[in-house]
Amino acid sequence: MWNGYPVVDADGHVIEPGNLWEEYVDPAFREACLRVERDPSDGDRLLIDGRPSRLIRRLGGVPYDPDEPIVDWNTLERAEYAPFRESCPPASYDGDARVRWLDAEGIEATLLFPSLGLIWPREVDCASPYAVAHLRAYNRWMADFASAAPDRLVPVGQLALSPEAPFPQEVAALAATGFRHVMLPHGVTVLDARLDPFWAAAQDHGMVIHLHKVAVPHLLPLPLPTSVRAPGTGAFFNHVNEILPGQLFLAGLLDARVPDRFPDLRFAFHECNIGWLPAWLERAQESFETLRETGRDTPDHPPRHYLYDRDAFFFSTGLGERLDRLPEELRSRVLLATDFPHPGTPFRPREEWDPVLAAFPEDLRRALLGENALRILDK
């Protein structure tokens, strides 16, 4: 509790331990499974099918210190680098340690997303048996992690767009092991009929669908391998535009009439912010009216209906946004997110959030801290 309000962290992360896949992957994939290779001279490496990851530069480097901010391993310059395991907070890979961290920070519950699992699937064929086996292994490990406190550690499952893993069976298997939250499947590049079995299965099992910025396709009709995060542009350009996939995918969901065809689905966007939503809604409303007047296809309802009148869309946020400017109609859509234990995130969230929250109206504080998140946790 913070100032009498229950607190839910809507975007927390685990850091997958290096031995996860060797212990949890199906035996047929064990020899070539993901693993961490020790390299004291340049930092440990993630191996994918025996090859170093192209996207994950370094794992570990400096021993974790709970009294210091979390270090970005990629920017370290050291004569010798500490092992990956020693560099990770115990709360990132041990369920009991995570519960102790929640207690220390006064947090009631946390949604838990992967770290390495947001990145390595971009380096493999997500339709392959290899990818499917590794995502299933992660889900098994995550279920064990969350078993330390099932009412407080809320796992978000991972799936792949693959003929090897039909959505009805995969979603049912997740539900049978206690998952009620799932990420958008890896490998999605368009919103077409291939996803309908996923939407239907998620709706049938009461799953909340989570869209994390790193794993959300931008859906722009650009030639591959063009991306929103394009080579040749600087850190400022990339950081500013990291929220674009969330905006684009929201428009895509409405355009594909997913909320109309599957009305019981709920969606949570993470690390895409929410401050852009009022201006986006104005443009979306204008587009809706213009297209309706010319007889073009549109969603069944005006865009504001999906954000104001339905309890279907949520957006997590961090410390950087001016939430006091958020219209009252959208306060029921916002979720608090720590992003712990990633670099640059609050390693003592309550201490850093308290002065920010003090400036907010009471209804916004209550909604942000836990009232909204408890609805998607069905509590």
Automatic annotation (TrEMBL):
Span of domain Amidohydrolase-related: 134-378
Entry superkingdom: Bacteria
Keyword Magnesium in record: no
UniProt keyword terms in alphabetical order: Lyase
Alphabetical list of InterPro entries matching this protein: ACMSD (IPR032465), Amidohydro-rel (IPR006680), Metal_Hydrolase (IPR032466)
Protein name as catalogued: Amidohydrolase-related domain-containing protein
Organism listed in the record: Microbispora triticiradicis
